Amino acid sequence: MCRLSRSYFDIRNSDFFRHVAFACRAAAAFERRPVIRHFHVPELPDITIYIEALERRVMGKTLNRVRLASPFLLRTAVPPIERVHGQKVTALRRIGKRIAIGFDGRLWLVLHLMIAGRLHWREPAAKLSGKVNLAAFDFESGALVLTEAGTKRRASLHVVQGEEGLRELDPGGLELADCALDQFAEALTRRNHTLKRALTDPRLFSGIGNAYSDEILHRARLSPIALTQKLARAEIQRLHSATLETLEHWTVLLRRQAGDQFPEGVTAFRPEVAVHGKFGRPCPVCGTKVQRIRYAANETNYCPTCQTGGRLLADRSLSLLLKKDWPRTPEELEEMRKF
Q1: 3-state helix/strand/coil string of 239-282
Q2: What is the rounded average pLDDT of the residues 41-69?
Q3: Which residue did the predictor score with more confidence, 17 or 235?
Q4: Which among 311, 332, 14, 34 has a CA at the least distance from the CA of 22?
Q5: How far is CA 269 from CA 214, 266, 280, in A?
Q6: Residues 6+ apart with CB under 8 A from 79
Q7: Neighbouring residues of 67: CB distance < 8 A, sequence distance ≥ 6
Q8: 3-class DSSP state for residue 2?
Q9: Distance CA 86, CA 88 (A)
Q10: Which of 51, 60, 192, 246 is deepest in the core (most CB within 10 A)?
Q11: Which residues have C-beta within 8 Å of that of residue 221, sequence separation ≥ 6?
Q12: Burial tier of 152 (Cβ tally within 10 Å: 0-12, 13-18, 19+)
């Protein structure tokens, strides 16, 4: 091998060259990695609007029958689902992220929409053709149809009896509508978790998921990885206010957008959101590009300037590879992307 080619070979295989090449590829991958933006688990504001729409349509009405198109939807055998046929709707309730429909005889149908489940109001005896249609709940005035997009069947339907049956499905998180600061602080600091994990834990707080937790933390100007037991009292108070304000804001907004219509197209990826699902777009408060942390099928979106003092949080899938060369600020990340 000639001297020139050997020299090139040595450089091409050096640790430095491999490291730089890998960093460039990693930064490029970070920029273009796809994000699933189509679905999110309906959370407290979405479930509230669903229930309000159902109250106007089925409260006091008789459920003629339930038609199941998927054998995987129904998760209970006792009581049998036929027990609700011919029964009148007497109550509607939210249990965390579930919708509970109460009937005569202390019977309850409890729906969990999970990620891709959605409800629709159709004409009476609407057909259940197509893979996405899982069930129909037939009333004289119309049919409540449950659909679930995708191939994974995660939505669930339980038939339970009495308050004891409902309690078994309730994770027990704090209801936030009128909770006092001290109640909120006790639940928040019960364990030393990151704020993101604490807010989305259904055993601590009822009805908050991935989407609205991003919006809450942005409004509170707090880092998603800040530890709950290290927060100052003023920060807890700010988070408490931001939580109540965010959930109220979105409930009012979704109610106004739905009007008298049944809510369709439930999604967290709306133009009005500040940071959730807006990776790479400018923060509406300061203009800094929104960043994200990816983990499994979820992601956390945040503004470095508003929430982390300008620091770029480590993305698990890349920071473990780049280690000490992981960029610390949005500016360093932009420089890396220029390679």
Answers
A1: HHHHHHHHHHHHHHHHHHHHCCCCCCCCCCCCCCCCCCCCCCCE
A2: 96
A3: 235
A4: 14
A5: 12, 9, 14
A6: 107, 159, 160, 161
A7: 128, 135, 136, 138
A8: coil
A9: 7
A10: 246
A11: 238, 306, 307
A12: exposed
Tokens linked to 148:
């679930």
d(CA 289, CA 69): 45
Residue 112's φ and ψ, nearest 5 degrees, are -120, 115
Q: What gap in Å lies between CA 113 and CA 72, rounded to an integer? A: 13
DSSP string, 93-134: EEETTEEEEEEGGGEEEEEE-TTTEEEEEESTT----STTEE
Reported pTM: 0.83
pLDDT tens figures, 137-179:
999 999 999 999 887 889 999 999 999 999 999 999 999 988 9
- List all residues 6 or more positions away from 121 whose beta carbon is below 8 Å from its beta carbon: 53, 57, 142, 143, 144, 145, 262
In one letter, which amino acid is 323?
A: K
Measured distance between the N- and C-terminal CA atoms of the chain, rounded to whole angstroms: 31
